[in-house]
Amino acid sequence: MGKVYNVSKNECLGLVVLAVSAVATIIGLSIAYDKQRAKNQGNPGDEADTSSTSVPLTTPFTPKEPWDYYRLPDSLIPGSYNVTLWPRLKPNADGMYIFTGHSAVVFRCEKKTDLIVIHANKLNFTTFLGNHAKLNGLGEAVAPAIVRTWLVVRTEYLVIQLSSKLTAGESYVLYTEFRGELADDLEGFYRSEYMDDGVKKVVATSQMQATYARKAFPCFDEPAMKAVFIVTIIHDRGTVALSNSKEMDSSNSTRDNVPVTVTTFEPTERMSTYLLAFIVCDFDSIQSDYSNLLIRIWAQRKAIGGGQGNYALNVTGPILQFYEKYYNTTYPLSKSDQIALPDFNAGAMENWGLVTYRETALLYDPMLSSTGNKERVVTVISHELAHMWFGNLVTLQWWNDLWLNEGFASYVEYLGVDYVEPTWKIKDHIILYDVQKVFAMDALASSHPLSRKEEEVTKPTEISEMFNTISYSKGAAVLRMLSEFLSEPVFAKGLSSYLNTFAFGNTVHTDLWDHLQQAVENTPNLHIPHNVHDIMNRWTLQMGFPVVTINTRTGRIDQKHFLLDSDSKVDRPSQFNYTWFVPIKWMKNGVDQQQYWLLKETDTHAPMRVSGDEWVLANTNVSGYFRVNYDVDNWGRLLSQLNTNHQVLSVMNRAQIIDDAFNLARAKIIPTTTALRTTEYLSKERDYIPWASTLRNLDYYVLMFDRTEVYGVLQAYLKKQIKPLFEYYGTLTANWTKIPAGHTDQYNQINAIRIACVVGVKGCRELINSWFRQWMENPDHNPIQPNLKGTVYCSAIALGGVEEWDFVWRMFQNTSLASEASRLRSAMACTKTPWLLNRYLAYTLDPTKIRKQDATSTIQYIAHNVVGMPLAWNFIRSKWSYIFEQYGRGSFSFSNLINGITLRFSTEFELQELKKFKEDNLHVGFGSATMALEQAIEKTAANIKWVFFRQGIVYSLSPGAHIAINLELNRITFG
Ligand SMILES: *[C@@H]1O[C@H](CO)[C@@H](O)[C@H](O)[C@H]1NC(C)=O
Ligand SMILES: *[C@@H]1O[C@H](CO)[C@@H](O)[C@H](O)[C@H]1NC(C)=O
Ligand SMILES: *[C@@H]1O[C@H](CO)[C@@H](O)[C@H](O)[C@H]1NC(C)=O
Ligand SMILES: [Zn+2]
C-alpha cells in the first residue's frame, strides 16, 4: 500500500502549530467495518482477539481442527480461478447494495485430505443439495462426494467435508455461487459514492490487501497462493469495467431481465489474491501509448475534463521506464491503469496493472494545487509503480516480511521521482520524511524489530498492524544504508538477479540477501567486513538503533542502544545484545574521509582524533541508520562552524546536527542548551531541510509547553529567528506577489509565513487576513497562492470565529478538487472556539458530512490543536466502542488516532487517564492500535520526566542566560 499521509508531506512537516495552527501530523486512514469480530468477542470459547497484551476474557482458545488456525493447511494449491462478479449500483428493495458472483477454482491436491478449507468472509452462498459448493475432478480425477459444508466466522473460512480423500497429484474444480453486500466499508468489493452535477453516482471498487479478497469471492487468500485469474464482470450498460488485465471481450446481453454488458479480461499472470482489483464506474480516462504500453488515468469525468489527470499520465511512462532500467526487467504486464477513487482507505494500492489511489494522491491541477500536492502525486505514483516488480512480480511469502516490500518501495520511490523531477533534489528528503521520522518511534523501548517470525503474525489485525512506520520508514532507511555501503550499482545488480530468479514466485527476505551477497562477491575490490546476512540481521532482527559516540580527543568510538528515555526497561532480549555493525561515512573539516566500520561496542580509530579548530562530522548525509554524539569540544566546533559559515555543511548534514542534538538532549545525553544552540545560526539559514528539522523538534517543545509558562519564552525566541526568513521571502517574492523558483524554496516560504504569523512577526497576520477577506468577499475568486492556502486558511480560522468557519465549511462542500477539500478540512480544526470544535467532532461520525475515509484524520487534526486536544480525548473515550467497531482494523489510521490524541500527554494525571482508558476498554479491544497504545503510555511517562526540567529551558532560551545553565543541575535545583 502507499504510505498514507493525507496532507502533503511538505505542507505538514514542521507544521509546528504553536498556538495557532492546529493542523499537522501525517495521518493514515483506513477504515474498517468490523462488526463481525466485535460480535465474536462475546462468544464463549473465542480467543480474545484484541491483542497480545490484553487479558483474555474467556479461557484461552486452543486450536484443534484445521479450520481453527488462521493459516491455510498446505494440502491444496490453487492453479486458476474463473471469477464472475456482478455489482448492482442501485439499491435493492431492502435498500441494500449487493453483488452476486460465481467462481470456479482449479486446485491441485498436494497431500491427500478429505477436507477443503478456503477463505470466505461475509458471503452468502447458494446451496446445491444443501451444500455451499460443488466439486468435480479434473481430467481422470474423480471427486469424492461432499458430506457437509459450513462457514467459520472467526477464521473466515468455508469448510467442505468430503466422503473420502482427494488424491495427491490430482486436480479438482470447486464451484460456488455467492452474494455479498457492496457496502461502504472500504474493504473487499465495496462501493464509493460521489455527486456529479447534483446526481448521486455509485462506483463499485475493491481493496484486497491484506485479507479482503475473501470478502469478494471464496479464495485461498494468502500471498504465496499465487494463481491465474480469468475475470468476467457484468455491469450496467454505459459503465466501464476494469480489472488487472486488459479487457478481451465486451458484449451486451440480458441477465435476470436486466440489460447488461459482460466484459471479460485476459487471463492474468500468476499473482497473489491481495493484488486483485475489480472496478465498475462511470469515469472518464486519458491515455497514452508509451513504448507500446497502454497507460491510462481514470477519474471522475469533471476531473479528467479539467486536466487533473495530465500530470499523472505524463510521469507514469518515464517512471516505468526508469524502473525497467533500474531492475533490468521489462514491465511484466500489457497495460497500466491508475484510478482515483472518491472513497479509499489507504493512500494508494499497488494492484497489479490497476493501481487505485485516493483522489489527492493522483490528481493535480496546475492552477489550483500546491507544489506539495504535486510532489505527493508523483511520490505516491513512484511508490506504487515500484511495487509492480518488487512485491507484485516477486512477492514475499508472508506478511511477517512486509517491511521488505514496503521499505523497499518507500526507498526507491525517491529514485523514481528524482528521474522525472531532477531539479527537486528529492533524494535529500528521505531524511525528513523517513529517517528522522522513524528514529522517533524506534527509540522507544516498546518498539519492535523490522522482521517478525512468521508465526507471530497470523490474525487479520496482526497483519494490519504490520503496516506501520517501522515497516515503511525504517525499512526504507535500512535499505538506503545497505545501498550506500554496497554502492548503488552493486545493489541494483543483486536486485535484478533476485527479481529474475523469483519472477512470478514468492520469497523470504533472506533470498534478497543471498542475491546481494552474490553481487558483492562478483564485484572486484568491494570489501565489506561481514556478509550481507550478518550485517543486515543486526538491523532487521533487533529493534532500535545505536547512538555512536566519538571522542575526538582520543579517537575512541562507542555505540549504545539509543533510547529516548534512558531509564526505560528493555524487555525484549536481543541475540546481538543491541550492538550493530555500523558503516560510518564521515568528514573532517568538510573533507570526506574513508568509510569506517564500527564492529564492536568500543573501538579506537586514530584518524578521528583531531586538534585545534578541526572538527569531525560522522554519518554524513545520514547515510546510516544511527545517531551521533561527540565530545563537548567537537560539539562546540561544529556549532561555531554553523555560526560562521554553515554552507560548508550540506543541508542534510545541517539538518542532522540539529536533529541529533535535540534528540540526544531529550534522552538527557547532552544538555538541552547544546540542542537549542544548534538553532542559533538559523537567522541566517534559508534552506528548507534544516528549518523543517528544527521546526519538527521545536514542535515537541511546543506540545509539551503550550500549556505552561515556558511557551512565552519559546515564542519570543522563535520570533527573533524567523523574522529574517520572513523578510527574505517578502523580498524574494516581490512583496508576496511571486512564487519562489526553487522547489524547496516554495516549501520554506510556507514555513516562514506560518511561523511568522504564529509568533506575531509584524505584518504577517495582516497579510494573511487581507487575502482571506478578499476571498470571503468574492468566493468565486480565490486570490490566495495555492502553496500558501493551507497556512492562510488555518490562520484565518484560528483568528476568526463562526463566520470564517462556516464560510470554509461551505467552500469545503463545494470544491471539486480533492486536495483543496483536504486543506479546508484540516483548516477547520484550527479554530479556538470549543463549541465549533465539538460540532466538528460530531461531524466526523456523520459520513454525509465527513467521508468515512477522513474521519480519523479529522479527529487527529482537532487533537493537535491545544484547545481541541481535551475535547478530542473526551470524544474518543466516550465513543470508543463505536469508533473501534468502525475503524479498529484500519492499518495506519487507527494507531495514528491514538498517537495523535496523546501527543501532548506529559502529566501524571494524563498518564493515569491513559492507563484507565486501557483498562476500561480491554473488553472492546484496541485492534490495530494495540501497539500504539503501549507506545503512548511509554512516551507519556518519558514526557513526564522530561518536562520536569522545564525551568531549565526557560533559562536556556532567555538571551544571555543559556551559557551557564545545564539541565542536569536544574534537576537538583528545582527538583
Ligand atoms: C474458465 O474459463 C475458460 C475460458 O472461458 C474456460 O476455457 C475454462 O474451461 C474455464 N475453467 C473452468 C474450471 O471453468
Ligand atoms: C446474507 O444473509 C444474512 C442472513 O440471512 C442476511 O442478513 C444478509 O442480508 C445477507 N446478505 C446479502 C448480501 O444478501
Ligand atoms: C452495448 O450497449 C451500449 C448502450 O446501450 C452501447 O453504447 C454499446 O455500444 C453496446 N456495446 C456493444 C458491444 O454492442
Ligand atoms: Zn507500498
Written overview of the protein:
This protein has 975 residues and is an alpha+beta fold. Among the domains are: 1-282, tricorn interacting facor f3 domain (Immunoglobulin-like), CATH 2.60.40.1730; 833-975, Zincin-like fold (Alpha Horseshoe). Helix content is 40%, strand content 18%. The chain is built from 31 helices and 31 strands. Strands 1, 2, 4, 5, 8, 11, 13 and 14 form an eight-stranded mixed beta sheet that branches. Helix 9 crosses helix 10 (488-502). The longest helix is centred in the C-terminal third of the chain and has 23 residues, at 710-732. The chain starts with 8 loop residues before the first helix and ends with a helix. One 2-acetamido-2-deoxy-beta-D-glucopyranose binds at residues 82, 104, 106, 173, 230.
Give structural attributes.
Zincin-like fold, 31 strands, globular, binds 2-acetamido-2-deoxy-beta-D-glucopyranose, alpha+beta, 975 residues, eight-stranded mixed sheet, binds zinc ion, five-stranded mixed sheet, Immunoglobulin-like, transmembrane helix
